[in-house]
Design goal:
heterodimer, A: 413 residues, mainly alpha, ABC transporter involved in vitamin B12 uptake, BtuC, two-stranded antiparallel ribbon, 15 helices, 4 strands, globular, B: Rossmann fold, Rossmann fold, six-stranded mixed sheet, four-stranded antiparallel sheet, binds adenosine-5'-diphosphate, binds magnesium ion
Chain lengths: 413, 278
């Protein structure tokens, strides 16, 4: 896959052609999403919308954590600011103004971005002036503060929550936002302007010696990232139409962070795929039904055996990674064998797990295993590929083409 | 979101032009520059002047305060007392990035490249200092930003050729061998288009042939690119063969100054370097 950033920069020639094509494709995609409403089951549609929001959240956090190398761990707080600010505006000002629902929602999206961006500036400016991990502490604390403030403000509905009237749903806009977020971050690292951001991540002292205003660069990344989270929050609030402080708990921040880490800090493609996979998988599992029509129950020994299988897989895969110096199909075969061994180990272990007294009768609802899946994925990625699944790599058309050319060459040879 | 207005940039360019064209005066003057770290006086009342086009050496045993001098000049530290003038203007207390904009750039003794970036990208970071397009036009991928990126990369490529690194343009800088990393640091500093370039032990870890090539390159930087060069070097042979003026530090104090021959025969210098061949 193409190496980082501007090393595969956009070429000035053929610029408008590709660009128009991308824009048309993006609009067609958003239109398609909108058109799907009604033709797919409501729960699937809901997942599609929420997945789009998580793509925005993880890609925007990646701008801060991955590309610029800062450590923000309270992204959900900016999501919340966007939802609450625009919820408040809609409740109080929607009636009696001339706009219809959709243009109003677009304006709310911008307002959410502005609100979260301003809050991001106030949080980021003092903490990013300093070197080190102050940002992590400050963003952690900020999440708690926002939570306490909303819980205690009557005007914001307190702990009970806030009913946003009217409910305005625009799934296509959710995905348009996601695409804009991806495009903006990608444009940044594809042009020279992105290099100071990456340079700050690599070495702050050297960056400033090269004339980079490190504080300004970090704050810029933080504000843009927060603004996108705020815009996503505005759409989320209006989509759900009922928001409570619990919907923006620390847990949400950790999920977004996990997506960035697993996808590969710095890789926009990685964050996008991780958001889709890590959000989509548990949601999909939740919809699985057992034979009795209720939520699927997984027997505890099964879960324990599966975890055992994961452990065996990690051990085998690490051995392959460090000791097995073949390439291509042989390497793929080795990893395949690792999976095979893990499955066999898991199957063999299952009867053993069932021997543990009280375990045999226990079973867990699949939905409650959601966080377990997150945690296990995170641990596996950290152990096997600490730089994230995609590392610093990005998807690009050039990469696709080069794959194709390589195949051609091999055929010729 | 738009990062810096054009007015800022233009003013800055004017400042720089003013500075550089104020001919006659010294490029750099240290006047009793002093810095104390707690009880330790790392640099003690050091004074020297660089004229335009100088190839100036700063030498001294380990721990003499040479790198600290560079850190004072480039704004990493603020002098406890004394003055540092660049083209007659005080830079003491300015931030490193402001000083880089004025036209002083440096390399690091303990190489500090942007490891995950390619050689070319490292150099573009240096060149980016003189960019003109606002951030917003890059975020929206306006043609101006695309063109500027292409220009910056072209300039960077040229510098890589000068430093004989063109073949490694797309290699991650952390994967380069040591000697090439040192040269890449020089290319990156050159990309900021400084009028004064500071090289901190550029020959460290190089073999004799590489050192020979480096001497040629440093002369080229001065003669073809019209830079004033201040370099720190531990290898006495290297410095004596290359620099026309030399200042010797020991324990933070300036113990000698002058041409290579003067300095070489100075009893204080011989004492400071006791045991080492001068
Ligand atoms: N930030 C600092 N804090 C405390 N002491 C320092 C600091 N920087 C340099 N020194 C001390 O200043 C002295 C000079 O160091 P340096 O300038 O690196 O020497 P050199 O001439 O070998 O480059 C050393 O004794 C070093 O320990
Ligand atoms: Mg030193």
């Amino acid at each position: 896959m193409a190496s980082v950033t501007a090393d595969s920069p956009v070429k000035p020639g053929a610029f408008w052609g590709t660009r128009l094509l991308s824009i048309v494709l993006a609009l067609a995609f958003c239109f398609g999403i909108g058109a799907m409403e009604g033709s797919i089951p409501p729960f699937a549609f809901r997942i599609l919308v929420l997945a789009g929001l998580y793509v925005t959240l993880s890609v925007s956090l990646n701008l801060i954590n991955g590309i610029t190398g800062q450590f923000s761990i309270g992204h959900a707080a900016f999501y919340q600011v966007g939802a609450y600010v625009t919820g408040f505006l809609t409740i109080n000002y929607f009636d009696g103004q001339p706009l219809t629902a959709i243009p109003w929602l677009v304006i709310m999206m911008i307002a959410g971005a502005a609100g979260a961006g301003i809050v991001g500036l106030m949080v980021g400016l003092p903490s990013l002036r300093l070197r080190g991990d102050y940002l992590a502490i400050v963003t952690l604390g900020f999440g708690e503060i926002i939570s306490i403030v909303t819980r205690n403000q009557k005007a914001l509905g307190g702990s009970y929550g806030m009913q946003i009237e009217p409910k305005i749903q625009a799934p296509w806009l959710v995905w348009l936002l996601a695409i804009i977020c991806i495009a903006v971050c990608r444009n940044l690292i594809k042009t020279a302007h992105g290099l100071p951001f990456l340079a700050v991540r690599e070495d702050e002292v050297a960056s400033s010696a090269m004339g980079v205003n490190t504080t300004k660069t970090k704050v810029t990344a933080f504000v843009i990232g927060s603004a996108f989270a705020g815009a996503a929050g505005a759409l989320y609030g209006h989509f759900e139409s009922f928001i409570t402080p619990d919907m923006f708990k620390m847990e949400v921040s950790f999920i977004i962070l996990t997506m960035v880490v697993i996808g590969g800090t710095g890789s926009i493609t990685g964050s996008t795929l991780a958001a889709l996979f890590l959000f989509g998988l548990p949601e999909w599992l939740r919809t699985l039904k057992g034979a009795d029509g209720n939520a699927l129950q997984i027997p505890a020994p099964q879960v324990i055996a599966a975890l055992f299988g994961v452990v065996v897989f990690v051990a085998c895969a690490r051995w392959v990674r460090d000791r097995y110096h073949e390439k291509g199909m042989k390497l793929a075969g080795a990893y395949g064998s690792a999976v095979g061994i893990a499955v066999v180990a898991s199957l063999l272990f299952r009867p053993l797990a069932a021997l543990i007294p009280s375990m045999a009768e226990t079973s867990w609802e699949i939905n409650s295993l959601r966080m377990v899946i997150f945690a296990v994925t995170l641990v596996v990625v950290m152990l096997l590929r600490p730089e994230g699944v995609l590392g610093h790599h990005e998807f690009s058309w050039a990469w696709l083409r080069s794959l194709f050319n390589k195949k051609n060459k091999e055929v010729q040879a | 979101m738009s990062e810096d207005g054009m007015t800022d940039l233009q003013e800055e360019e004017l400042d720089r032009a003013d500075l550089i064209h104020s001919e006659g005066g010294h490029v750099l003057s240290l006047m009793d520059a002093t810095i104390k770290f707690g009880g330790l006086t790392a640099v003690n009342k050091v004074s020297f002047d660089l004229s335009r086009g100088d190839l100036f050496g700063l030498i001294g045993p380990n721990g003499a305060g040479k790198t600290t001098c560079f850190n004072l000049i480039t704004g990493v530290y603020k002098p406890t007392s004394g003055e540092i003038l660049f083209h007659g203007k005080s830079v003491a207390g300015m931030k490193p990035n402001q000083i880089a904009h004025l036209g002083i750039c440096r390399t690091f003794q303990n190489i500090r490249l942007f490891g995950a970036l390619s050689s070319l990208e490292n150099v573009v970071v240096g060149g980016f200092l003189r960019h003109k397009t606002p951030l917003l036009s890059s975020l929206l991928l306006m043609p101006s930003a695309v063109t500027e990126t292409a220009e910056l990369r072209e300039k960077a490529m040229h510098l890589l050729e000068v430093m004989n690194l063109a073949d490694d343009a797309h290699t991650r800088s952390r994967d380069l061998p040591y000697g090439k990393q040192r040269r890449l640091e020089i290319a990156r500093a050159m990309a900021t288009d400084p009028s004064l370039i500071l090289l901190d032990e550029p020959a460290a870890g190089m073999n004799p042939q590489e050192k020979e090539e480096l001497s040629t390159t440093v002369r080229r930087i001065r003669d073809e690119f019209n830079k004033t060069v201040l370099l720190i070097e531990h290898d006495m042979r290297f410095v004596m063969g290359l620099c026309e003026k030399i200042v010797v530090l020991d324990h933070g104090e300036e113990i000698a100054a002058g041409g290579p021959d003067e300095v070489r025969n100075d009893p204080k210098v011989i004492e400071a370097y006791l045991g080492e061949a001068v």
